[in-house]
Amino acid sequence: MTVQERAERIKVVLLDVDGVLTDGKISLHADGTESKQFDIKDGLAIVWARRAGLTVGFLSARTAPTTLHRASQLGVTLVHQGLPNKLETYDEIVGDMCDDDDEVAYMGDDIVDLPVLARAGLAAAPADASIDIRTRVHWVSAAKAGDGAVRELIELILRAQNRWEDIIQAYLSEAPPREHADVDPREPGRSGVASADARSRGTRK
User: Fold this and answer.
1) How confident is the model at residue 184 (pLDDT cuts 50, 70, 90)?
2) What separation in angstroms does the CA of 59 have from each of 25, 31, 38, 106, 160?
3) What element of type H or E holds 124?
4) Residues 37, 54: Cα–Cα separation, whole Å
5) Residue 110 in 3-state DSSP?
6) 3-171 belongs to which CATH class?
7) What pLDDT digit, counting tens, does each position of 30-51 carry?
8) For residue range 46-97, what is the model confidence (pLDDT) as tens digits?
9) Domain map of the chain by residue range?
10) CB–CB of 34/66 below 8 Å?
11) Distance of CA 105 to CAs 37, 43, 121, 129, 171, Å?
12) Using CA atoms, how far apart are residues 50 and 56, in angstroms rounded to an integer?
């Protein structure tokens, strides 16, 4: 089965957090709190996926308030943290939301993700994932973790399902009509009306 065919079937997109939605680095502060960075491109893509009818969920071995906060910002309610065994949670999700594994995409970055990646209908990894992951998944992003890898995965799925153009058109419909007479292509940054006036003054005797 090709990647395109796999992507066409996806209904649920599950994502590891550290090393997929982030670059895997954690900043530990003196007060005991921690912080990590999420990519805006990934966030936008998650919103698009949800609007298109896909379910998006986070599966993380670690527990962090930042993950819940980011999920809340994006409207993601399927969040499982502190998982010693991701496969058990994955099985529960498939049983509740899908007919079979073929309807699930999962992106992971290290060997702890192998059990889920081996089951998912579309197994994916960021460009900087472990070599043991990149050689065992169906698709590898050109982008690194925390730098648009999730954005690329979601675009792949939405394009395969012929939903990407709807997203483009939705944004184009928000744009105001372009008044072609306002811009003179021969003089970038100047209006056509002003150019016409200037030409008129230049030929006046």
Assistant:
1) low
2) 17, 26, 15, 9, 24
3) strand 122-125
4) 24
5) coil
6) alpha beta
7) 887 888 999 999 999 999 999 9
8) 999 999 999 999 999 999 999 999 999 999 999 999 998 999 999 999 999 9
9) 3-171, 175-203
10) yes
11) 23, 17, 6, 16, 26
12) 7
